[in-house]
Each structure stands twice: as structure tokens, then as C-alpha cells.
Amino acid sequence: GPYDQIVLEANGFKIKNYFWDTMVAQHVMQPEMPKTLAYITSVNTREPYYKDEVKSDEDTKSWTQKWWSISENREKVWRYNCKDTGCTFENFLIQEEELSNGPSGWTPTFQFKMSEIPVGVRISQAGMLRDEKKHRELKGALLYIWADFQSALNNLVGRTVNTNSSKQMCILLYDELGLKEKRKRDKNGKWVRTADENALVSLVGECKAQYDNRIQKAVKEKWLKALVVCKLTMKIRGVRKVLSSYVDIEISDDGRARGLVKITGAETGRWSMSKYYDNTGIPMQTVPRDPVELEDESVLDNIEGLLELEGALK
DNA sequence: ACCACCACGTTGTCCCTACG
DNA sequence: CGTAGGGACAACGTGGTGGT
């Protein structure tokens, strides 16, 4: 499939063509069910589960020369690979039968999906060339903005606040500032208080209304403070998100940021994306569109200084 | 070190309200 | 009365926090 092709071609093998992908076939016939080889093998064949055979007693991270030099280990991996290829072929035979006997839409959909593979592979392998000068400037600008907002927030609250900690934020907003608790259901259906984006947006609205309706200066200021805390928190979270997900990332040695296109990633037929197979790059679908703007661009004259802010903030 | 949970980046659909 | 716009939620993937 596409994933294997990308890994193989990255290691010097050229894939000429292939006509069947068990994942694509499963995706077309049973889009809501798992598409892993382990699952379809369990459904289609009588082969006992074998996927843990190479991992059971050896940590996969220890696939070192030392580990590999033990013939027993090599034997295990070879046997595993043989089962993998054998099962894949067995799955193919069963899927081919199923596909041709299924609804009339299956075959053309399968063919269409297969034709998407080279497109997805091409996009994955191309990636995006990163402009290193711009990258430095962007990082400097984001760190500057973060530091600016963070110091304002810290001064307002009187201590350092980690806006990414929902625990800290709930204590600040509800216990210390006395705002009306925003709640949501957790996974088990239990109501818990939250300081997520929705909560902050509605708190901003409430604080604004209170501020506008109050007369006493001291009371007005209290609401203004709460309002600013919420707004700063949203801004800081946004900046940190952009930094951690899109700027502070590892990219390929050739200066390109790549992402893996998964044409069978979503039940609905949409494509999904992830980081590249080697865990570099970004899922290119979610790159923020919003521009990063500085009021005073001259702060970029000292990027070195800005980059040093990183240590103080983290 | 691992895991559950929280949070947030994208597009798209549906529903409702406000507005011209 | 048609439409613009917002909220809620659907579809995804990943990073950070804090407890075990």
C-alpha cells in the first residue's frame, strides 16, 4: 500500500506498480470497520493471531545489531514476515471474491480509490519546502507575542500561570476570580467544570456584560480583570498551539516538511493526514491560515534575543 | 514510562436567528 | 422571504498536563 511504498522508496526501492491494496478494499466494503491486516486476517482466515510474535518478549526499540545477530530472533522476524505476506495474499483472494459479488458500486469505487494512491503518495513525498529565514522570523514573532501576553497575564494574576493546564485555569477562573462555573460532560457522562475554548468565549461575554452594566469603579475593574485574563488565556493557547504543532517541529534532512496522506483514513471517504512515516513533518491538513501579525515589526531586528525567550517561557 | 484526559488545528453539514 | 453568520457537532491527528 501507499505507506509501504513510501517507506520502501525512501530506502532506495522503486515500486513499479501494484493492483490491490487490502486496506483500500476493506475501506470500500466496510468503511466503519478496522482496516488493519490483523483485523481482516482474523475475519477472513483461520490463521491464529501472530502479530505479537516479534514483540512479545523483545522490545521493538531494541532491534539493534546485537539483537539481530541472534539467529533465533532473525528466525522469528522471518517467520513473521512470511505470515504477513501469506495472510495478505489470502485476504486478497477472499476480498476479490467478495468485491465482485457485492453491490455494483463496490468495484468502481475500489478502482477509483486505487487511482487515488499515486496522488496521495506524490503529495506525501513532495511535502513542503520550508523557508528557513521565514521560519526563524515566525518563531521569533510567536515567542515575542507569547512573552508579551504571558507577562501581562502573570502581572494581572500575581504569579506564573500555565494556560495549558486546565486544572490551574479552573482554579484561577472559578475559585479565585469567582466566575460562574462552566461545565461539560466528561467521557463517563459526569459533569465536570472546564476551562476550554467554549467556556472562555462565554466567560468573555459575561464579563463584558457585567463590566458594561456596573457603575462602581472597583467592581468594574474586577470584571475587566477577569475579562482580560480570559482573553489573554485564549491568545496564549493559540500561540503555543501554533508553536508546538507547526513551528517547533522536526523536518526531513532536505529541508522539507512532509506529511502522510491516508486515502482510507476516514470512514466517509475523506482523506486524512498525519506526520510522516519517520515522525517528522506535520499533518498538512491542519496548517493554520491566520497570519501572525506584529504591531511593531522592528522587534524582529533582534531575533537572537527573541529566540532566547523560549527558555524563560518553558 | 505510560496513559487518560484536555485542548485545539482544519473542513463540512445542519439548524437557528438576525437582518436587509 | 432569502441569506449571512454563528453555534454545535461531525470527520480527522497531535501536543501538553498530571496522575499512576
TrEMBL record:
Its BP terms in the Gene Ontology are:
DNA-templated DNA replication; double-strand break repair
Read off the SUPFAM superfamilies from this record: DNA/RNA polymerases
What organism, scientifically named, is this protein from?
Answer: marine sediment metagenome
The molecular function terms of the Gene Ontology recorded here are:
DNA-directed DNA polymerase activity; nucleic acid binding
What is this protein identified as? DNA-directed DNA polymerase family A palm domain-containing protein
